[in-house]
Amino acid sequence: KHEINYIYEPNLMLNPDFDTNTTDWTLGTGITHNTNNGSITFATSLEPNPQYQKLNQLRNNFWGNEGTVYKISFEVSDWVTGDLNGRITNGEYGVDFNTTSPGGDYAVFNVDLMNDANPNRTHEIEIIMLNYTGNTQNNNFNGRFFIQSDATNNFEGTIDNVTIQEKIINSTIKTFENG
Length: 179
Known about the structure:
- The protein has 179 residues and is mostly beta strands.
- Helices cover 0% and strands 44% of the residues.
- The chain has strands at 6-8, 26-27, 31-34, 39-42, 53-58, 69-81, 84-89, 103-111, 122-128, 130-133, 144-149, 156-169.
- The strands form two sheets. Strands 1, 3, 4, 6, 9 and 12 form a six-stranded antiparallel β-sheet that branches. Strands 2-5-11-7-8-10 form a six-stranded antiparallel β-sheet, with no helix packed on it.
- The radius of gyration is 18 Å and the shape is globular.
């Protein structure tokens, strides 16, 4: 009998807990750093002119290619309303796939907090990198990770302790049965 055992690599994010600053992160419109508790707060709804509220970390030539599996986790607190979504990408334009971008590998995630009985907790999502090709080219630069609230999900709350870990096969464990 052979079994595959998986493990998660250490956290790949820089400054994941925001304890003293937001070094390595770009905070979009409506996002603030709480210096008293080292977390990130997304503002109330930006209506009547909703915009993307994006927490972004650039990581050039960093993320795995198509088929790479990651576990993303982050803590939500002080939730008022809305959902979160985000993306990991290696595409040239990083976030926006359109006819002018050459393409790249990416993964998208959504966290449905509105239908969660307990949105104020640590959320974990496992994602698989996919491939997008525009103009039949691939590349691995201008990579980034982001979590966002946009006009459709209007998240209002706080996030902290962002982790991304690559899922790999644990090659140190061998299981044999009957000989």
